[in-house]
Design brief:
The complex is a heterodimer of chains A (about 190) and B (about 375). Chain A has about 190 residues and is of the alpha/beta class. Chain A has one domain: Glycogen Phosphorylase B (Rossmann fold, 3-Layer(aba) Sandwich), CATH 3.40.50.2000. Chain A is built from seven helices and six strands. In chain A, helix 6 links the parallel strand 5 and strand 6. In chain A, helix 2 packs across helix 7. Chain A is globular. By secondary structure, chain B is of the alpha/beta class. Chain B is built from nine helices and 14 strands. In chain B, strand 11, helix 4 and strand 12 form a beta-alpha-beta unit. In chain B, helix 8 packs antiparallel against helix 9. Classes of the chains: A alpha/beta (about 190), B alpha/beta (about 375). Chains A and B meet through helix 2 and helix 3 of A and helix 4 and strand 12 of B. The structure holds zinc ion. Zinc ion binds next to loops of chain B.
Chain lengths: ~190, ~375
């Protein structure tokens, strides 16, 4: 009997701890649909991960435009800017731009969005394989100024996005790119 | 010791004896691997049927046509561009022997650079061949060289100039089929093979063309799909679909400035959606230990385990390694998903392929079970 009581107490405590953490995680995510359509999706770093987000947006039935090289002047026609962060030297080479130009383009886009009251969503869907010096530079350029972060968990093993988000930016960590599509859809009114 | 006529004669005899002993081994690589015609094969052509200049040359190679007889699109799968990348050509051979198209046409070239299969990279310590256990017993396959045999194309220039663009690469790349596209009818043997393949893609009106490769685990573009811009949509959709089947594949756009590669030149020279896929082959890497048949088959290597722990690799790697069956399963499954997804938009151009074992089946039973 005594043993059983102990087991129940321990189980209860474990349950309480799990609930507490779940609560924290939920609070850190996006509380509800708060972004408006139409959205402009672009890449930061020219990896093909942007293409996958384009397909996610399509499947989610969102009203969007995809332009991997969109400039700041394009932002004005939209209510939300989605930046898909992921560096690819092949991609940058294919687009004929260098790191600095790409970082400047991202900063200009975010600047234009902030000025125009356009929401900024930053996504990282490439997982562990799409991290490293090249991508991390773009992460640091874009993520701190986001209104919402969607990060496929595998790409956050060192918690870089958690640190950037702190208490001020809502962040969700889907397990897969497919699940990231669910979060993207849920973020829009 | 002073040499005499006797010692000279003894040495000469020994040299001749060694020569007689090793010659069969050396020439054995000229014996073609057995590739069985599967139930879906409706014709076996040669690449020289598309470019006559290849007839009776070591560059000619078999082209398997699997025609459903029903109207639809045409998909091409190429293996053995690099004959030291076995998951590509074993995957292609599996398709020849098992695939049964029920709509449209599937064309498979399992050994694109036939000349590269006739020698191996002895200075890399590469094995000459490896065996797979199949229901019919042990079956041997050659493990060739990345490049065309210098016996068939020699000498290399100091600098290889890509004919269509003037791009300069190191001289040995002259014999690299995947730097030779779109090729030339009057060029080197390698350029002629490239030309033949591009001719095939044009004449057969191939809609989707897939080139199967492998690379070392420390190379960034592995477990990856490189796509020509025309294949962008299908690449992204296929990557998402593969993720649902728990197969992670990285997407890389084909650089416009890197010339001579299949994913660039097939797409530019023809109307096909061109993609190239890579799996990870530790037998090709710089960090490997003994390079032998076991490494080719199991993909297990202690040094790669250490490298993975140090965060130096671009794929997950543990004591289970990267077995050939797993690599073939990736290629075959990704190929099937690409074929399915590429024709979603226009069902009249669809290619439907049945009879191919699933990822799980190939991984659990081993690829030999299906050959
Ligand atoms: Zn290769």
């Amino acid at each position: 009997m005594k043993d059983r009581l102990l087991t129940l107490t321990v189980l209860g405590l474990v349950f309480a701890v799990v609930l507490a953490f779940a609560g924290v995680a939920a609070a850190a995510g996006l509380p509800g649909a708060q972004f408006e359509q139409p959205l402009l999706i672009t890449s930061v770093g020219q990896s093909a991960d942007g293409q996958m987000v384009r397909v996610l947006a399509q499947r989610a039935g969102l009203n969007f435009t995809y332009d991997s090289l969109a400039g700041a002047d394009a932002v004005s026609g939209y209510r939300t800017l989605v930046l898909v962060v992921g560096g690819s030297s092949k991609g940058l080479g294919a687009a004929g731009i260098n790191l600095d130009q790409e970082e400047q383009r991202a900063q200009a886009l975010i600047g234009a969005a902030k000025n125009g009251g356009v929401g900024v969503v930053v996504m990282h869907v490439g997982g562990e394989a799409r991290r490293g010096d090249l991508t991390d530079r773009f992460v640091r350029a874009a993520a701190p100024r986001a209104d919402y972060l969607i990060v496929v968990a595998d790409g956050n093993q060192d918690n870089i996005f958690g640190q950037i988000a702190g208490d001020s930016i809502p962040v969700d960590y889907p397990g897969t790119v497919g699940e990231a599509g669910g979060y993207l859809k849920a973020a829009f009114k | 010791m002073v040499g005499t006529k006797k010692t000279a004669l003894a040495l000469l005899t020994a040299a001749v004896a060694i020569l007689i002993l090793v010659t069969p081994q050396f020439t054995a690589m000229h014996t073609a691997d057995t590739i069985n015609k599967g139930p879906g094969v409706t014709a076996v052509k040669m690449l020289s049927d598309y470019f006559a200049g290849l007839k009776n040359t070591p560059g000619d190679t078999a082209v398997y046509v699997l025609d459903s007889g029903k109207p639809g699109g045409t998909a091409l799968v190429v293996g053995g561009t690099h004959p030291n990348e076995p998951s590509g050509y074993i995957g292609a051979i599996l398709l020849v022997e098992k695939a049964r198209p029920t709509k449209g046409k599937l064309i498979v070239i399992p050994q694109a650079n036939a000349s590269g299969f006739t020698h191996n990279d002895y200075s890399e310590g590469s094995p000459q061949r490896f065996a797979l256990t199949t229901p019919g017993g042990e079956r041997w396959f050659r493990y060739g060289s990345r490049a065309t045999n210098p016996v068939h194309q020699w000498p290399d220039p100091d600098i290889y100039v890509h004919a269509a663009s003037g791009q300069k690469l190191s001289g040995s790349e002259t014999r690299n089929l995947n730097r030779a596209y779109p090729g030339r009818p009057d060029g080197t043997l390698t350029e002629q093979i490239a030309y033949g393949i591009v001719e095939l893609i044009s004449r057969e009106k191939v809609n989707l063309a897939i080139d199967l490769h492998e690379a070392s685990p420390e190379y960034p573009v592995i477990n990856a799909l490189v796509f020509h811009e025309r294949a962008m949509d299908v690449a992204a959709i296929a990557a998402l679909d593969l993720e649902m089947e728990k197969i992670k594949i990285g997407l890389e756009p084909s650089p416009k400035t890197l010339r001579g590669l299949s994913h660039r030149e097939w797409g530019d020279a023809t109307g096909a959606m061109a993609v190239l896929m890579e799996t990870a082959n530790p037998a090709q890497g710089r960090l490997r230990g003994a390079t032998n048949e076991a490494l080719v088959l199991t993909g297990q290597d202690r040094m790669y385990e250490r490298a993975a722990k140090l965060g130096r690799l671009f794929i997950p790697y543990d004591k289970n390694g990267q077995p050939l069956s797993l690599r073939v399963a990736r290629h075959v499954t990704a190929t099937m998903v690409l074929i399915r997804d590429s024709f979603e938009k226009d069902p009249r151009q669809a290619v439907v392929v049945t009879g191919v074992p699933s990822y799980r089946e190939i991984v659990t039973k081993g690829v030999g079970a299906f050959l």
